[in-house]
DNA sequence: GGTATATTTGCAAATGATTCGCAAATTGCC
DNA sequence: GGCAATTTGCGAATCATTTGCAAATATACC
């Protein structure tokens, strides 16, 4: 584990939600180059130390998000108002995937699931846009 | 429904599997411009006549795939050897999504799920690469 | 430790999918 | 048919991501 890779991994581990590559690049400004960040993310995913998924959101377009594999494999909800992620907890797709493998003779090695919509906070605020401004990402 | 939009929609309807924007552009060569194809795909998705998901595959990178909404909402398996899609049939996530909405107070308006791995055909052929050459996408 | 070899990094430029500006063409409506 | 509103084509611009290559660092071996 090189210095750069360790830095990228701790950036992921320090975050409560998945990070886009460009946000990792931002957090590691001055620590390592953006090409190195991208290469490190690929390395970490290959090494099963991180996981990624590609999300489309009308405000951010297509971006790939990365999360440390420290915790159990899980999925996320993306709020299309405040653009934060909500942790949905450990993956509940095991049964469904096993069914599909048996029914169709597939060998499933990876899966991607995410939900999107409006989070509880945003739903609670009539004026969601004002809230969105204050909020993170 | 303009001529260009209709052309894009029938390209999607004529396909047994989701198409990347660039493949739609290819099929409509001479019929309409690529910017028009992209705009039409956005329009169709907005109008709920088509659905899209963004998939990452090491060979094709990140691409957004589109399918007509003619049939019921469904999900796909992507074979990382032959790069074809396998139709997994109607969506089975209704219960899981309803649970999550209740548990976490979310309002889920869209969801993306896809599986990837090795399809039955590719698994059956010891020499998967020869098969992959003959196959589609 | 010291040296040779393999891997990783920084930098700057390239890539590739997607988007945009704007004038011309098409559409929906009276 | 005539007109305002919308859509299209074209080319250039964007943006995330990748790549080539020389310098720096890590690893293997003595
Ligand atoms: Mn977002
Ligand atoms: Mn593929
Ligand atoms: Zn929110
Ligand atoms: Zn296959």
Describe what you observe in this structure.
The structure is a homodimer of 137-residue chains. Chain A has helices spanning 3-13, 21-27, 34-46, 94-104, 120-124, 128-134, and strands at 19-20, 50-57, 61-68, 74-79, 85-90, 107-118. Chain A is an alpha+beta fold and 137 residues long. A three-stranded antiparallel β-sheet of chain A has the order 1-3-2. In chain A, helix 1 packs across helix 3 and helix 2 (21-27) packs across helix 3 (34-46). Residues 131-137 of chain A have low confidence and may be disordered. The interface between A and B is medium-sized, with 34 and 34 residues. Strand 6 of chain A pairs antiparallel with strand 6 of chain B. The structure holds manganese (II) ion (2 copies) and zinc ion (2 copies). The site of one zinc ion has 7 residues of chain A, from helix 5. Residues 79, 81-82, 84, 119, 121-122 of chain A line the site of one zinc ion. The first copy, chain A, binds a DNA duplex (30 and 30 nucleotides) through residues 2-5, 20-22, 32-36, 38-40, 61-64.
Topology:
The structure is a homodimer of 137-residue chains.
Chain A: H1 3-13, E1 19-20, H2 21-27, H3 34-46, E2 50-57, E3 61-68, E4 74-79, E5 85-90, H4 94-104, E6 107-118, H5 120-124, H6 128-134
Parallel strand pairs in A: 4-6
Antiparallel strand pairs in A: 1-3, 2-3, 4-5
Helix pairs in contact in A: 1-3, 2-3
The complex binds manganese (II) ion (2 copies) and zinc ion (ZN) (2 copies).
Chain A binds a DNA duplex (30 and 30 nucleotides) through residues 2-5, 20-22, 32-36, 38-40, 61-64.
